[in-house]
Amino acid sequence: MEDLFEIRLRVSDPAGYPIIVDGAIGNDEQTAYRVSESKYFNSDNERLEIVVSDSRIQSWISTYGINKSEIYALKAIIANLGAQIQIESDTSGAESTKFVSLSSRYKYLKGMLDDLEIEYNKNNKSSRVGTSIQPIIAGGYV
Known about the structure:
Blueprint: H1 2-11, E1 19-22, E2 31-36, E3 39-41, H2 54-64, H3 66-92, H4 97-123, E4 136-137, E5 140-141
Parallel strand pairs: 1-2
Antiparallel strand pairs: 2-3, 4-5
Helix pairs in contact: 1-3, 2-3, 3-4
C-alpha cells in the first residue's frame, strides 16, 4: 500500500492532495481517503477523480518496480489529459479557461515525464553503448 500511495503522490493522482490515507473519511482537507479499491474521497465525502486504477499501479510496481511505475502512471495520465483537451477544444474552444488549464497541466506533466525518463535511463544504463548486428555482405554472414 505504501508504494501505491507513493506513486499516486508523485504523479498527483488524485490531483491536489499531498496526503493519502487508507481508511475512514476524516476531516483533513488536504487528505485523500482511500475507502476501497480505486475509490478515493475528500473530507467533504465527495468522490475524487483518479485516472489510473489501484490494480494497474500495483501491477506496474510488481513488474517494473516503483521508479519505472511512476513513468507508466504519468504516461497514462498524459494520455487521458490529451483526450480531455481534445474534447474541451471541440466543445468550448481553445480560449476557454478549462482548456488552458488542461493544456498547462499537460505541458507540465509531459516535461516531468521527459525528465523522469532521462533520469531513469541515466541511472539504469548498462556498459553497453549501442546495439550491433552481424553484417550481411554479398548475401551471406561474415
